[in-house]
Fold this sequence. Notes:
The complex is a heterotrimer.
Chain A: E1 4-13, E2 16-26, E3 31-35, H1 42-50, E4 57-62, E5 65-66, E6 77-80, H2 92-102, H3 107-121, H4 136-148, E7 154-158, H5 166-183, E8 186-191, H6 194-200, E9 203-208, E10 211-216, H7 218-223, H8 228-233, E11 240-249, E12 252-257, E13 263-266, H9 268-276, E14 283-287, E15 292-295, E16 302-313, E17 317-324, E18 327-334, E19 344-349, E20 355-358
Parallel strand pairs in A: 3-8, 3-9, 6-7, 7-8
Antiparallel strand pairs in A: 1-2, 1-4, 4-5, 9-10, 11-12, 11-14, 12-13, 14-20, 15-19, 16-17, 16-19, 17-18
Helix pairs in contact in A: 2-3, 2-4
Chain B: E1 4-13, E2 16-26, E3 31-35, H1 42-50, E4 57-62, E5 65-66, E6 77-80, H2 92-102, H3 107-120, H4 136-148, E7 154-158, H5 166-183, E8 186-191, H6 194-200, E9 203-208, E10 211-216, H7 218-223, H8 228-233, E11 240-249, E12 252-257, E13 260-264, H9 270-276, E14 285-289, E15 294-297, E16 306-315, E17 320-326, E18 329-335, E19 346-351, E20 356-360, E21 366-369, H10 370-373, E22 377-380
Parallel strand pairs in B: 3-8, 3-9, 6-7, 7-8
Antiparallel strand pairs in B: 1-2, 1-4, 4-5, 9-10, 11-12, 11-14, 12-13, 13-22, 14-20, 15-19, 16-17, 16-19, 17-18, 20-21
Helix pairs in contact in B: 2-3, 2-4
Chain C: H1 2-34, H2 58-64, H3 80-110, H4 120-144, H5 150-174, H6 182-191, H7 198-207, H8 214-239, H9 242-250, H10 255-266, H11 268-283, H12 287-292, H13 300-305, E1 308-309, E2 313-314, H14 316-337
Antiparallel strand pairs in C: 1-2
Amino acid sequence: MASIRLEKLRKEFGELVAVEGLDLKVADGQFAALLGPSGCGKTTTMNMIAGLEVPTSGDVYFDERRMTDVPPGKRGVGFVFQNYAIFTHMSVYENLGFGLKVRGCPEAEMRRQVAKIAELLQIGPMLPMNAGRLSVNDMQKVALGRSMITNPGIFLLDEPFSNLDAAFRAYMRGELKRIQREVKQTMVYVTHDQIEAMSMADQIAVMSCGQLYQSGTPDEVYNRPVNIFVARFIGSPNMNFVRCTYQAEDGRGFLAQKNGDARLPVDDRRRRLLEERRGSPDLILGIRPEHLHVHPQETPATLWRGVAYAMEPLGPKTIVHVQVGRDVVQVIAPADYRPRVGEPQALAFDLEYMHIFDGSSQDVIR
Amino acid sequence: MANLRLDNVTKRFGRVEAVKRLALDIRDGEFFCVLGPPGAGKTTTLRLIVGLERPDEGTVYIDGEPVNDVHPGRRDIAMVFQNLALYPDKTVFDNIAYPLRERGMSKQEIERQVTAVAKKLYIDQLLQRKPAKLSGGERQRVAIGRAIVRQPRAYLMDEPLANLDALLRLEMRVELKRLQGELGQTLVYVTHDQVEAMSMADRIAVLNLGVLQQCDPPDAIYNLPANRFVATAVGSPPTNFIPAEVRPQDGGLAIRHPAFTLSAEGSRHPLRLALESRGDLTAPVLVGVRPEDVRVAVSSSDAYCVPAQVSVIEPLGGETIVDLRLGPDLIKAVVPPTQRLEESRPVWLAFEAGRMHLFDSASGARLYSTSQLGELACRGHENP
Amino acid sequence: MAKPGIWRAALRYVLIIIVVGVFTFPTYWMVTMAFKPRAEWSTAAGTIYWVPQNPTLENFATVLTEYQGQFFRANQSSAVPSIRSSIIVSVGGTLFALLLGTLAAYGLSRFTLETGDLPWYIALGRLGALVVVLLPFMVLWAYLGIIRYWYGIVTFTFLGIAADQLIGRLLARYYKGPAGSLAFSILQLRMFPPMAILIPLMIMWSAFRLVDTWYGLVAVYGVVTFPFVVWLMKSFFDEVPRELDEAAIVDGSSNWGAFIKVVLPLVKGGLASTALFVFILNWSDFLVALLLTNRDWPTIPVFLNTLVSSEIGAQHGPKAALGLLAVIPPVVFGLIIQRYLVRGLTFGAIKK
């Protein structure tokens, strides 16, 4: 069990800067996720933590010990990859025990450890079976167990569930989190799927184009994103973004839609922020679909009027796409709300959950 | 406009039966989804309809005519392949124009039709490019353009959005639904993504290993799944299945789990009839309840009477998934993000009474739904 | 690090130069010989002329015009007819093999047989069985004296086909082992050295009066290079995803239309490289041409052979000149089709 600290980590491949000035701290026993689209540098970062890549500059520390020059074999790091590297000609028991056997572990001890891991992963009955005959899902569990059994201080996982079916992925998210809580291993999990990161991680590091944009708890990255990229990347369905400018009228502040006539009143705190700031006059309003409410008729809470553009029934809820001016926003509505395309809609806002972003720098103003 | 029908169609590849006695009746103008995991036979079904495969048994009908022996090019059905199959050495214009040229249309007419379709799909600026120089979304639209340009009586699409990134997929979903609404033709859409199926389809056919599980509108699939497979296939996180025993109790029946009991009073309760229909009244059952129909409270009350313990919490931002230990079993519940719960703490659950199902343990078939046949009284046990 | 590294690199370069030198020396020698006057041909005088001292074009003149050849086979004294013969025969053979082979390759690529392919050892066994069965008939035919006549050959051929059919059917019914690959079996045809069947071939061809004709030679070349074409083109066709054929079919093309309009344009590069390969094979063939041509249609290799005569001695200069000239058509052909040898023609068609 070890803490990880990355200090100004930088990696160049010729002219391409894959990772730029990354600073990150993962506490001992914490579950951290590196989240971002493909090509954002998350796998490169993980490889640098593992020692598979040497940083161009910057340092990697485990428990405050400098690891940058230590070869991967000596770092005490365990891996799980996408393609479940297990030995298909051996039994599950032999697979799990392999790491211990290689280290010369006595038979009785090995049996005990394998049993413990199998119990943890709920694959006990499969121990005598040939690993090649397992389903893809179970194979991944064995791969997980094989890496875990040697008790590495740090565990690195690179999109291990992306090849598995949706139902099993949902199941494994909970399982992995539960296992991590029990064994208290420091885990670094690389993924492009924000649901995985949100559901499992204590700390999420959102990356894009080699840069770390924000690192925080799921609550922080979801409710207090620092820029539009993080705000859009996290959460499904995505946050709505509407281009606006600021207007002052009779001592009150408004956000005026650029692609239409809609207006949104802002409270005093935000009014002061917007009037005192320096920066681009272009603003972007961000609000999540669950913080909008839609009705067929106007209510006292109605702030915007629009027309139903599309409707997606999803079972427990419905997503309604409402066209306001030339923008389209998505709203979450109850499962039985089924407007027809073209019907007028009235929108109400949970204004405290609104975000305002600078239109050119894309950073949040809040 | 076309009505497509598969009548007990079976297709074998070597010894494997890809599709087993499949019977589908797709209505005119419908947005029809075929949903299932990889290997379920969805692509085979599509290929049987378009004519690239010939049924070993059974007949395919289009508008009432049997078409088993009709060449694919003459069935007037267009298909968008899973990997698009754009002609790489031809421009976008030539790709879209290909089917029209095969029909011997005049040059001016082709010009007119192709530009019209390109405009509708917002690719009219790309007509002179070759597929290699297009983005994923643009290639998608070229493939769709090639399909719709000849105005066939039905379209088939094989997982067209599978390889697009998440954002583009969401956009294209809405666009496709709108397009189908505008064009009004029958669309048969194959996918393994249940969100796509639920959000776009008029009706969904759920397939598993070549066998049709259920064919119904999305609401029915979601609320009244025919069996365990369908209940798992749709909805995320998937339905919880809680093993329980059936025991007689005071003249009625009790569904017993270490943590709770569901009771049906009286000797003629519909539950008794439903359970008896499978032959063995007291064979084990699975209680099926969706995570969003499980409510969690930190203290017990009349409604929240089922004891459980929080295992881990998965915060998704817009909602939170709670992993719970219910006696010896693990289930999940979906709670609002505002509800704060702590891991490893005891909690009390309430199940949405009108949204519970009972499935047969052995066959997986749905035996009873509280929405259809009446609610069951739920009582928690203090010490499971 | 510096010293041993430098020596190693130097050694590497020296070795490379030696090996390259050994392999390019014959070409160099031929090129220089083509321009050497008669006096510089031979090394009998003790000097070796590495570079022609008095370069001349007389060798080319000699070989392209009439000269007093006293070798009874070389009826024409200029090389020009042989150049013409080579071109006709090589191009003809290439076209023949390409046409048949490409169609066959497409069939093998797209339409797999579920049953019916035999593994190579069974195929060889079948051949052996055929030979054993036909041997007595061969003896009989010879005894009857009809093996030299066309009707003898034709009837024997039909007999052979019938025997083969019988053996094939018996095998199909009783062989239950693993399946082979029809494509590989076709390639195996070429692993059989043509030399082994050349004598019977010559006999057959003379019986059918195909000797010393261009079409006789084209037929042999076509058949002998057919397996290469099949094997090469099949791999190119395999690279074109089957969905493209299917998309064309769904769009309204027939199978043939899909082949011509969609698939064939995509293997242009493969077709070009296969054509070049086969052309070079045909162009440089000596043995088959030697046996199957006489006065009217000798090809360049055959003609080159006649430039040795016991009267005037070995004609090194003209030989080298003709050799140099003979290199030109394949090189020109290669340059012409070079722009078709482009890889990655299917990029963008299929998403991965």
